[in-house]
């Protein structure tokens, strides 16, 4: 895992500067060629007759995104290393599309990892330039990924939990990308502190995590405000701040990622 996790190192170099940006700041993409944008495609399996539960689908997306980044093929010298390193060294963009039936089966042969959680399936793919995306992916719809909200149980103690901003509604596709960013950031921060053993255990557990919408009290308690370094060091909480390309305003904090969920610690406020 140590060799593979090295691919995440560029995230560490940029994390602090990202969080230090003013709330409305975003990258200048005015001179960007859309065909040359590099992104990670994610495909959500949403069958017409039996759609998955929204929470399970998001948990599968969160696990799939980090699973493809830390696949053995991404280690130095591996067949996926260069495209993954190039993507992580630039802007971390993802796009989620939906598929069912034969279209879902068709993308299984493309380089990536499929994760299933409680019957919900998501496949995250090796990042590539938009112009190089295979037709099996580009023909899939981005819109129409919305699913009805469900009522999941409490987060599982001892596993990471990704708290969604209760004031920022997002489609299932947008949220899938955001929770994928969150698991990548947590893994990079763990590596940065030399906590490879924890990262190994998480990988062995299939990168399981809980995705929940935070209530106002939990959001305010865990939000790092203007001190993200202390929030990670003392509470193991990091944030996903969106660049604002779709659905939300630039600088919006969409997810608070808590490395290990401990309800007793939350109640104590420490």
Automatic annotation (TrEMBL):
<dbReference type="InterPro" id="IPR002833">
    <property type="entry name" value="PTH2"/>
</dbReference>
<dbReference type="GO" id="GO:0016787">
    <property type="term" value="F:hydrolase activity"/>
</dbReference>
<protein>
    <recommendedName>
        <fullName>peptidyl-tRNA hydrolase</fullName>
        <ecNumber>3.1.1.29</ecNumber>
    </recommendedName>
</protein>
<dbReference type="InterPro" id="IPR023476">
    <property type="entry name" value="Pep_tRNA_hydro_II_dom_sf"/>
</dbReference>
<keyword id="KW-0378">Hydrolase</keyword>
<dbReference type="Pfam" id="PF01981">
    <property type="entry name" value="PTH2"/>
</dbReference>
